[in-house]
């Protein structure tokens, strides 16, 4: 008799099972409810198919819908698999490539035989997917020999799959999933895991959303493919909630609102750079003034550093080797003026537009001798940076090539780190609360590709962790979580993830504890012992970038910005021309009180004016007619409220002045 395997369950109990036993068998032995609910298994920490037999003694945890993150990953992977099968059945000759799960769904890339897919194809594909789900085809994992798999793909005309199979590392197990049984079974090369059958996903919990182009393996030199996106969930209720969020997000799209409110625009002549209009730049200036008050009070010194630095400086910092593909490089020579000759010679020295401010701040720190008494030294810059983002990745204000960071670097001693990080946590908390955000904090730990010793990383991670604990933020209330492998190449970091009005999260603020850059750029201070010591460099930002933070604010408030941020805070609108002089008088008083106000004296009906200024998201409309002029009153209409309030002009000014005061000055 074969030796029995010992399977340890989460409660510590051990079951002895024969070879060939699967996690599904154990679920069935525990009870029919668990057998029905179990979707997959975590075996020795690895998520596996529930029908995959054990290979020896193991730790087992069964995955159900209650394990939502794992469950969503599984069903979305299955929806992608079912999508690919449906497409190939409806459009014979289509080649398949890859189809991963995403944060809210899935996609699959195809090489169509005749024409690219369009959104008109999606209803038929959805119907075929539901037919496959209803058929409840078993999903069977198979391990293939490389040469057999390549031959199979080539015989079927699947050149993309054959290419990928040929390039997978030697010794890697090549697995195929078979949907159904017999000669007509559909095959896909996939690491898995998958659910036990196609019927384990809900037929009413997915929707195909759009079609786009995508290059094979992400390289624009390769073939263009058709990518079909979908969203997939555990049940229809989750799907409906997600579709509602998408609908709400479309209404809040900062690009649409930015046009309606005349805030900014983007155009091809400056890919990824923003043209700020007067209205939009009012928001920018208010944020900049707010942040300056905050950092002045927190003991920062503001600096300004060059946009362009020599490549040798970026080599010394490590960015030239680790980050060069994201940098704009510039030849340090006068360009050739001969139209027929090359613009740049091969002899040019290279410079680069700065993608970040930190090396320049080290150079400021290095000017003159620094003593331990000078620390902490907090250098702040509204620093304009450039990063060479791919054109296809650009997205309104959210992902740009030119951006301005609310950037600062704190140079401090070892014994000051925890206190400085704690102070920053408290500053960030106060600022995010001023804008009405809740947030969670994550600690991003060392990545595989990094500078520095293990001891340096151990110490830096512990310091950030301890500072959050001291600030009282390492709790479930603040979503405290540690993220292995997510740190920068030179430092671990704390991340602030804001939650907006419709439940989306945005990673915004960070602080990083860095021992690498001061070493590489030879920053030092004289200690109490008279010897040279390396400072610790804390990289920190709260808005992240002004561009992205403004985009987030526009979407969070659906354009209805708090009065202190609104480009125009009040409009005085006339009902009849007899009130024009009074409207100008009211406008003057509002401006004298520091309120950004305009007068609308056009010969238009008042309902037209109300609609137009509501679309522009003006917070307050002060309507005046003959009666208001005689009585010295205004009828105040507030955006988002029904009706109007009639009040004396002095009372209206006092009310608006209070609302227009930034939160830190109230």
Automatic annotation (TrEMBL):
It is found in: Cytoplasm. Signal peptide: none annotated. Residues 253-562 form the Aminoacyl-transfer RNA synthetases class-II family profile domain. GO terms for molecular function: ATP binding; metal ion binding; threonine-tRNA ligase activity; tRNA binding. It catalyses: tRNA(Thr) + L-threonine + ATP = L-threonyl-tRNA(Thr) + AMP + diphosphate + H(+). Binds 1 zinc ion per subunit. One of its GO terms (biological process) is threonyl-tRNA aminoacylation. It comes from the Bacteria. One of its GO terms (cellular component) is cytoplasm. Residues 3-64 form the TGS domain. The keyword Zinc applies. Zn(2+) binds at residues 358, 409, 539. Its EC number is 6.1.1.3. Its cofactor is Zn(2+). Keywords: Aminoacyl-tRNA synthetase, ATP-binding, Cytoplasm, Ligase, Metal-binding, Nucleotide-binding, Protein biosynthesis, RNA-binding, tRNA-binding, Zinc. Homodimer. Belongs to the class-II aminoacyl-tRNA synthetase family. HAMAP family: Thr_tRNA_synth (MF_00184). This is Threonine--tRNA ligase.
């Amino acid at each position: 008799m074969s030796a029995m395997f010992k399977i340890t369950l989460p409660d510590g109990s051990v079951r002895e099972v024969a070879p060939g036993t699967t996690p599904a068998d154990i679920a069935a032995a525990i009870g029919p409810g668990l057998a029905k609910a179990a979707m997959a298994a975590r075996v020795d920490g690895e998520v596996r198919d529930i029908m995959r037999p054990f290979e020896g003694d193991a730790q087992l945890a069964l995955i159900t819908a209650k394990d939502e993150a794992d469950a969503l990953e599984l069903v979305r992977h299955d929806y992608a698999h079912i999508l690919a099968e449906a497409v190939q059945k409806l459009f014979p000759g289509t080649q398949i490539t890859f189809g991963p799960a995403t944060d809210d769904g899935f996609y699959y890339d195809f090489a169509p035989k005749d024409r690219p897919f369009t959104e008109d194809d999606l209803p038929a594909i959805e119907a075929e997917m539901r037919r496959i789900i209803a058929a409840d085809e078993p999903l069977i994992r198979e391990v293939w020999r490389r040469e057999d798999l390549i031959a199979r793909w080539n015989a079927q005309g699947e050149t993309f799959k054959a290419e990928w199979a040929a390039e997978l590392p030697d010794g890697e197990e090549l697995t195929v999933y078979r949907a159904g049984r017999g000669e007509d079974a559909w095959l896909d090369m996939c690491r898995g895991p998958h659910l036990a059958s196609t019927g384990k996903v809900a037929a009413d919990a997915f929707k195909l959303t759009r079609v786009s182009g995508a290059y094979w393996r992400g390289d624009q030199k390769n073939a263009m493919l058709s990518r079909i996106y979908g969203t997939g969930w555990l049940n229809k209720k989750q799907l409906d909630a997600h579709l509602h969020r998408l609908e709400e997000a479309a209404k809040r799209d900062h690009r649409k609102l930015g046009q309606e409110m005349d805030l900014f625009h983007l155009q091809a002549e400056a890919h990824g750079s923003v043209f700020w209009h007067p209205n939009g730049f009012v928001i920018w200036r208010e944020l900049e003034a707010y942040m300056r008050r905050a950092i002045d009070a927190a003991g920062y010194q503001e600096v300004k550093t060059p946009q362009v630095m020599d490549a040798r400086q970026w080599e010394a910092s490590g960015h030239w080797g680790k980050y060069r593909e994201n940098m704009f490089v510039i030849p340090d020579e006068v360009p050739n003026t001969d139209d027929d000759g090359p613009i740049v010679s091969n002899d040019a020295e290279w410079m680069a537009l700065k993608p970040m401010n930190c090396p320049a701040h080290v150079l400021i720190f290095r000017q003159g001798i620094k003593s331990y008494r000078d620390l902490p030294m907090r250098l702040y810059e509204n620093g304009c940076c450039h990063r060479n983002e791919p054109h296809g990745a650009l997205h309104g204000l959210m992902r740009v090539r030119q951006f301005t960071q609310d950037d600062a670097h704190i140079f401090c001693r070892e014994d000051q780190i925890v206190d400085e990080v704690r102070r920053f946590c408290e500053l960030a908390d106060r600022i995010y609360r001023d804008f009405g955000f809740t947030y969670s904090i994550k600690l991003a730990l060392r990545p595989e590709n990094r500078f520095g010793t293990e001891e340096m990383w151990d110490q830096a991670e512990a310091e950030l962790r301890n500072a959050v604990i001291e600030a009282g933020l390492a709790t479930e209330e603040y979503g405290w979580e540690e993220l292995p492998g997510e740190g920068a190449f030179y430092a671990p970091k704390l991340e602030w993830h804001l939650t907006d009005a419709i439940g989306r999260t945005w990673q915004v603020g960070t602080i990083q504890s860095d021992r690498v850059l001061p070493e590489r750029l030879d920053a030092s201070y004289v200690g109490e012992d008279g010897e040279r010591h390396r400072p610790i460099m804390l990289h920190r930002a709260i808005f992240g970038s002004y561009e992205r933070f403004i985009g987030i604010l526009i979407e969070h408030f659906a354009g209805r910005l708090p009065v202190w941020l609104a480009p125009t805070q009040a409009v005085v609108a006339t009902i009849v021309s007899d009130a024009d002089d009074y409207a100008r008088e009211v406008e003057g008083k509002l401006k004298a009180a520091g309120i950004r106000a305009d007068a609308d004296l056009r010969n238009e009906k008042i309902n037209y004016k109300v609609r137009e200024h509501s679309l522009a998201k003006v917070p307050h409309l002060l309507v005046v007619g003959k009666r208001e002029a005689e009585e010295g009153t205004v009828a105040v209409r507030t955006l988002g409220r029904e009706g109007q309030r009639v009040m004396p002009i002095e009372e209206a000014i006092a009310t608006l002045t209070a609302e227009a005061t930034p939160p830190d000055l109230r």
